[in-house]
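Review session, final week

We close the course with one last complete record, chosen because it touches almost every idea we covered. It is Lysophosphatidylserine lipase ABHD12, a protein from Nothobranchius furzeri with 410 residues. Go through it on your own first, then we will talk.
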Amino acid sequence: MSAQPRGYSELVLPALGAPTPVSPPRLTDRADGSFTSVSPALSRFPVMRRRSSPTAEKDSDTELKQRPAAGCQQGPVEGSMKPFRRLGVMGRMKRIMMVLLLVYISIPFIIKLFPSIQAKLVFLNFVRRPYFIDLKRPLDQGLNHTHNFYMEPVMGQKIGVWHTVPAHMWRDSQGKDGDWFKSMFSSTHPVILYLHGNSGTRGGDHRVQLYKVLSSLGYHVVAFDYRGWGDSDGYPSEGAMTDDALFIYDWLKQQMGKSLPLYIWGHSLGTGVGTNLVKRLCDRGSPPDALVLESPFTNIREEAKSHPFSMVYRFLPGFDWFFLDSISANNICFTSDENVNHISCPVLILHAEDDPVVPFHLGKKVQVFGVEYVKTCQSVLNVISQLPPLFVCWETWTMSQLKHLWFAWF
């Protein structure tokens, strides 16, 4: 007889006569430790029975079976996880600090290896505010007396232009085409060519507000987007920006009467474009009637060093080599401090003392360079300090007061 499994008794089945097909039995466990079949033919016969032993009793002890589960809930595992969690948080903080330090150190090297990145940071022409604006519809910006058109300073590259007529002409301008707007340049109203700064478009909110102010004072305002800005084609560069401004200026002089004044207004980075433009005009003997510099700076190197974005690297050894030389590598200079020495037309400087982007002391230095040049030319320089904000004047002052102040500047 073969050896029986240990712990089990011999299986004995009575004679069942002729075999009858039965379904294979499925064994289930009873509470007393025996196994029974679920088949109807065999359900009355005990199949197997465990031997009663201390080990089996311990195995069937429900309290013992529950003990490991209780240990998983109340054992030392939960308590031992707390210090690991604290260490995990500290580890993550250290990892974040290491990543930030790595980024801080790598940025100067990346800019030095790829100087074109610095050019994009100077122009910021990819930043468009407001984002959802159709520049073909200046009416959406509240300019109901403005005409949008396009010009080609270079063959195959167009730039977008806005022409805003004086505010009192708004009724006459309704439904008029480009020829009517062009004919208005020959009227008796002076023209301002506006050169905007970096980022945004000619439809920026603060720029539109300025158009309204100047239009209410009786000026034609012509604003355009340089190559690479707004809906204009091409790519930005200092030379291209100056060429675009010169192209628009010459076109305006052809449309205007010879006796009508034409002023150039530059803001922020546009002041660098403005001084470049006026220097060219003065060198060829045809200066504009006046130049307005709003928030000017001496040159792009000093402005970049004073910009809030450079604050975290300003005292880093090699700052000039990493950042400023990368700007010069892109032929970006905007040397207004040198250009003012070649400008012979009247210049008006407007600068806020709390300007967060272009510090006031840079505009003051431009004025100082202008004073030195004026001394050599034996000209007269008037300095107006503590001037109220232009928008405040427009909202609170009467039209006669505004015109008196404005024409006093020139």
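Two points worth writing down before the exam:
The two ends are 127 Å apart (CA to CA).
The chain has two domains: 81-113+300-332, 128-297+333-409.
Good luck, everyone.
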